[in-house]
Amino acid sequence: MSLPDQPKKGFSNKGTLLFMVILSFVCALILSVMASSLRQPQEEARELDRSKEMLKSAQILSYEGYFQVQDKSGNFVPAKIESSGLLSPIEGVVYPSKNQILDLYTKRIVPMVVNDKGDLSTFEKEKINYGSYLNNFRKIGYFTQPWKLIYKILPNEEKDKEKADGWIIPINGFGLWDAMYGYLAIKPDGNTVIGISWYDQKETPGLGANVTEWSWQKQFPGKVIFQPSPDGKTDFKTAPLGIDVVRGKVNEVFGNQPRSKSAVDGMAGATLTGNGVTDAYHDVLAGYRPFLIKLHEGAKEEAKNGAK
Predict the structure, then answer these.
(1) How far is CA 253 from CA 24, 195, 205, 246, 261, in A?
(2) Which residues pair with 153 in a beta bridge?
(3) Rg for the chain (alpha carbons), in Å?
(4) Which of 73, 207, 266, 289 is the most exposed place for a label (fewest CB within 10 A)?
(5) Residue 124 pLDDT > 90, yes or no?
(6) Cα 150 to Cα 42: distance, rounded to the nearest angstrom
(7) Do β-strands 193-200 and 87-89 pair in parallel, antiparallel, or remain unpaired?
(8) How far apart are the first and last CA of the chain?
(9) Is 257 in a helix, a strand, or coil?
(10) Phi then psi dihedrals of residue 157, to 5 deg
(11) Reduced to 3 states, what is the DSSP secondary structure of residue 209?
(12) What's the rounded Cα separation, in Å, for the pair 103 and 277?
């Protein structure tokens, strides 16, 4: 007499569910460990990127990635960093290491804050945590805060070490597709542009993304952020603040008019990106007007005293 076929053994629904739970737990654990191990390198990369972009806007780091200083004629020439931390001109080009870039950034760039009255202070004095502040207000813009972020550029010399060689203002706005972030460096007169940087953006490659290229950014040095009136005079209390990206060429739009001093050529096929850049400069700089006016008045008084 033959026995009936026995049912084949297999995974039960309970076993399958348990296997999936264990697999999910293992995968989550692996991802958590990987995220934790990558957090420090990612933060270091972000810090290096911020340092590079600020040094570029201040014309301390060239667009090609080497240090530079101004010679007696005011031209930028390659430089190397000495053991003292100062830059000295050299023949040829020497590209700095990551540590050298971070070291020079620490020595030359100082984060500070200004309020709506134009008063300058420090994070320590106002009991503000610098790291938390950077993360919390990056998207909405530091210019929206009671204490606004600004960076002091220290000079490349031992004497007058506390004297500002310029100031860097963080800029943020919106382009065609998403948010854009950059820096604007201005001279101690509170009006003249040293340089700019647009580095974090998602604009169309070959069009709006050209805001990150030196071929476009090199228009900004020497421009003024307080827009002069048609007669060439500037009322710092009421003048529009910003730099306009025109549609086309500045010389075609403004010719030799005073407004050309606060305008740059647009990018072909990237009108909306240009509009976003223009709006960002106007919106952000408006919050710094009291401080910029104080800078201008201080520079004017210093020049007056120096002429005596």
Answers:
(1) 62, 23, 26, 8, 12
(2) 109, 166
(3) 26
(4) 73
(5) yes
(6) 24
(7) unpaired
(8) 126
(9) coil
(10) -160, 155
(11) helix
(12) 31
Give pTM, 2 decimals: 0.83
Amino acid identity of 140? Answer: I
Query: Is the predicted pLDDT of residue 74 greater than 80, yes or no?
Result: yes
CB 108 within 8 A of CB 87: no
Q: Does 43 have pLDDT greater than 70? A: no
Confidence tier at 209 by pLDDT (50, 70, 90):
confident
What single-letter amino acid sits at 101? I
Confidence of residue 88 (pLDDT cuts 50, 70, 90): very high
Tokens of 204: 């169309």
Residue 228 has pLDDT above 80, yes or no: yes
Residue 221 burial (10 A CB sphere; 0-12, 13-18, 19+): middle
* Confidence grade of residue 299 (pLDDT, cut at 50, 70, 90): confident
- Reference 143, options 23, 288, 299; nearest CA is 288
Identify the CA nearest to 162 among candidates 126, 108, 239.
108
What b/e sequence results for 231-259 when a residue is b if at least 16 CB atoms lie within 10 Å of its CB, and e otherwise?
A: eeebebeebebbbbbbeeebeebbeeebb
What pLDDT shows up at residue 128? 97
